[in-house]
Amino acid sequence: MNWWDLAYISGFTPWDTASPPAELEDLLERGLLKPCRALDIGCGTGGLVVYLAKRGFEVTGIDISIIAVKRARARAVKEGVKASFIKMDFTDVGQAQLLGKFDLVTDVGCYHSLSQEDRKAYIESSNTVIKTGGLYLVWAFTKGFWGPPGVDEYEIDRNLGQRFEIVERREWYSYGRKMLFYIARRL
After folding, report:
1. Is the whole-model pTM more than 0.85?
2. ∠ CA(100), CA(104), CA(109), 5° rounding?
3. Is the residue at 2 inside a domain?
4. Overall average pLDDT of the 92-108 stretch
5. Are 51 and 39 in contact (CB under 8 A)?
6. Over the stretch 134-170, which tens digit does the pLDDT of each residue have?
7. What is the DSSP annotation of 54-115?
8. Range(s) of the domain holding residue 40
């Protein structure tokens, strides 16, 4: 059992909300995102996966917590949507390769929770699963005094490197910490 399983068992999961991020809703409402094959990294109990599935996306959610994955599967059944959920560690590049290619990949707070070493593997996994021309949406806290380790101000820009074009970068404050949102396109 890992730390994440314990968090879900204890109910200490402030990151696991039923509402999709406002930025994602905005992209859908403006017609900038259309149904496609999508992957949600660190899907938790599946809120974002279910949201996208209800809008016609073919969605797979992955999470390192088996407890979260089981709850996500139950949520999808309860909501009457078809979605896939897999227990996996996205920093395992070999496992990520087995997922295939996606047009859209979302990450609402997984990357910023990883160690620097795991972030390198995570980026390699991202390069593996996102189709050329596909979109990568990532939300991350910057470094702060509480919660996940966070990211340096321009770390995501640097780590995506030459393989992605940053289409949009937004920042705001949430829970007293700066939050970053990126839309990146795989080159």
Report:
1. yes
2. 105
3. no
4. 97
5. no
6. 999 999 989 877 778 889 888 999 988 789 999 999 9
7. HTT-EEEEEES-HHHHHHHHHHHHHHT---EEEE--TT-HHHHHTT--EEEEEEESSGGGS-
8. 22-186
- Rg from Cα positions in the chain: 15
At residue 12, the pLDDT reads 77
Instruction: Examine residue 5 and state whether it is found in any structural domain, yes or no.
Output: no
Exposed/middle/buried for residue 121 (C-beta within 10 Å: 0-12, 13-18, 19+)? middle
Q: Are 71 and 11 in contact (CB under 8 A)?
A: no
Q: How many domains does the chain have?
A: 1
Q: What are phi and psi of 9, to 5 degrees?
A: -65, -40
Length of the chain: 187
Q: How many CA atoms lie within 13 A of 17 on its CB side?
A: 8
> Rounded to whole angstroms, how far apart are CA atoms 104 and 47?
16
Residue 125 lies in a domain: yes
14, part of any domain: no
Question: DSSP of 166-181, one letter per residue?
Answer: EEEEEEEEETTEEEEE
Q: Where residue 58 falls among pLDDT bands split at 50, 70, 90?
A: very high
Instruction: Give the CATH number of the domain where residue 31 resides.
Output: 3.40.50.150
Distance, in Å, from the CA atom of 71 to the CA atom of 73, rounded to the nearest integer, reads 5
